[in-house]
From TrEMBL:
GO terms for molecular function: hydrolase activity. This is Alpha/beta hydrolase. Gene3D superfamilies: alpha/beta hydrolase (3.40.50.1820). Residues 67-163 form the AB hydrolase-1 domain. Keywords: Hydrolase. It holds the Pfam family Abhydrolase_1. It comes from the Bacteria. Signal peptide: none annotated. InterPro entries: AB_hydrolase_1 (IPR000073), AB_hydrolase_fold (IPR029058). PANTHER family: ALPHA/BETA HYDROLASE DOMAIN-CONTAINING PROTEIN.
Amino acid sequence: MRKQLLGWASLPLLGYAGICAWLFTKQRDLIYLPQGTRVDATQTDFALVRENVNLHGWVLNPQAAQPVIYFGGNAESVQNRREQLGRLLPDRAVYLVSYRGYGASGGAPSEAALFGDALAIYDEVRSRHPGQPIVVLGSSLGSGVASYVASQRPVSRLVLVAPFDSLVAVAQAHYPVIPVRWLVKDRFDSIERLRGYQGEVMVVRAGRDQVVPPANTGRLIAALGKPPRVIDLADADHSSIGSDPRFEQALAEFLGPAPTTRRDPLGSVR
């Protein structure tokens, strides 16, 4: 009888362990949601090959100066941002490239792959616009990618929309009974990436964000080395934040007309 009772008592523990094992095995299928973003490569006008993977996207105003690179959110079809960013930033070149596994891009997403791709995209943009400052704009998941780029490359201004301190912390907030911190491999630790960043930052957060808890965005803001400009959209949620007119106004004001590029005697761009 005692053995039988112990067997019954162990079932919840075995079930819990099974759930954790399943989450660990399937985590990238649960984190990355490219299914609804797929398009044919013929619909794109930008291509870059990295590690034998074709990355595809779009370029607005390719001959313009002062480029902006946009890193989209999870499950976002970045081409849907073309009208908005083209309207708000008519005097800037804007690059929108789908993550690997998204849009028309090949490969499978992971933190390391997305980070490496993002640096390759930055370097390609820099080669097309030599000597010009580059702005990076990241939304949701893209805020983690943008934060990494800003930690590795010169970024003149950084815009983070619905950002988080780390993907692990967000996941832990949603699943407090699961040891997420021990299971998640793709961590997107923006606090660590941006701790020493001294450039101009604008953070846009939604008051009704149901995906990124306010505390996670707040911890990122508090950890930044230089206080950012914070835009609070009290009535927006995670899905509507990027289309809110107040976001559009703030973005246009923060970036403004593309400044004239000049070099100081030491050769740095200002």
